[in-house]
Amino acid sequence: MALSNNNSEAPTPEFLLICFPNYQTWQHWLSLPLSLLFLLAMGANATLLITIRMEASLHEPMYYLLSLLSLLDIVLCLTVIPKVLAIFWFDHKSIGFSACFLQMFVMNSFLTMESCTFMVMAYDRYVAICKPLQYPSIITDQFVVRAAIFIISRNALFSLPVPILSARLRYCAHNIIKNCICTNLSVSKLSCDDITFNKLYQLVAGWTLLGSDLILIVLSYSFIFRVVLRIKAEGAVAKALSTCGSHFILILFFSTVLLVLVITNLARERIPPDVPILLNILHHLIPPALNPIVYGVRTREIKQGIQNLLRRW
Fold this sequence. Notes:
Largest sheet: 3 strands, mixed
Oligomer: single chain
Shape: globular
GO molecular function: G protein-coupled receptor activity; olfactory receptor activity
Strand content: under 5%
Order of helices and strands: EHHEHHHHEHHHHHH
Distance between the termini: 49 Å
Number of strands: 3
CATH superfamily: Rhodopsin 7-helix transmembrane proteins
Protein name: Olfactory receptor family 56 subfamily A member 3B
Subcellular location: Membrane
CATH architecture: Up-down Bundle
Structural class: mainly alpha
Membrane topology: Multi-pass membrane protein
Keywords: G-protein coupled receptor, Membrane, Olfaction, Receptor, Sensory transduction, Transducer, Transmembrane, Transmembrane helix
């Protein structure tokens, strides 16, 4: 859509995504590592899902939660990366009004769903190590179903107002989004209305959801480490820590990437504007690529399941 040069308040039928406005010439080179990471993320998560589905020994609550994490990663990748690559390869910068706000909803809700899944998995490890005798009666298939319903409903309901509030704004003259994806702030700042409430709601909702998950994760692991330090049997400490090592690595990486992204956005005046854009893309790509690999490398049952699957093929 051609840009309007006046202050007309006609509705905007579509937006234009301008990736890396200061570095348009080298974005084609960036598409190569992004496409390789995208293929790695999709292939690794699909392999993990198929392995858990096909191997009867992996039909346990812990692996069901891991399957949920892989499904969330796949949806996040498919929501963001294909559009970014289409912009890089074919210069398809336009995105429809509805499609933009749908992408905004999926990104906000599924990111918090992933954080909530890590929290439930931390509780699973807490019960496994701190209450091993009660584990079979607490962590059941019914528990996983209830946890999945809670994860989806809580985060979808709290994230839904973000795109609704943005969609209700009046978009007057400009339709160029200086980003590769439809983030709330990148889109809302194009409006001719006051966006203070939009920014405030996203800030409060985001930090409430992610913050509560992080607090519960820290509490779970503090209880785990306290119990582990009391174990005096030889090799018991290493065995106990190995059961939650993969999960702890994923949480640490997820939190670190998110923290770096938040810091770069807060220090936007001191950092080139293209850096937060790149970090935002990588945050939707690198964790999905690494999550199944970390679990596959560090978990003996999953490695054995993948080997069995390859032998069948």
